[in-house]
Amino acid sequence: MSLISYLTTIRFDFGALAGLKDDLRELGIKAPLIVADAGIARVGLVDRLKELLPGGQNVPVFTDTPPNPTEAAVLAALELYRSNGCDGLIAIGGGSPIDLAKGVALLSSHEGPLEQYAAILGGIPKINSAVAPLIAIPTTAGTGSEVGRAALITLKDGRKLGFISPHLIPKRAVCDPELTMGLPPMLTAATGMDAITHCIETFLSPRFNPPAEAIALDGLVRALNNIERAVAQGSDREARREMLMAALEGGLTFQKGLGAVHALSHPLGGLKQVSLHHGTLNAVLLPYVLEFNGSHSEAKYETIRQRLGLEVGASLADYVRGLNARLDMPSTLAEMGVPQDCFAAIAKSAVEDHSSATNPRPASEADYRTILEAAYEGASPRPNG
Ligand SMILES: [Zn+2]
Question: What residues does the Alcohol dehydrogenase iron-type/glycerol dehydrogenase GldA domain cover (predicted)?
Answer without folding.
Answer: 8-177
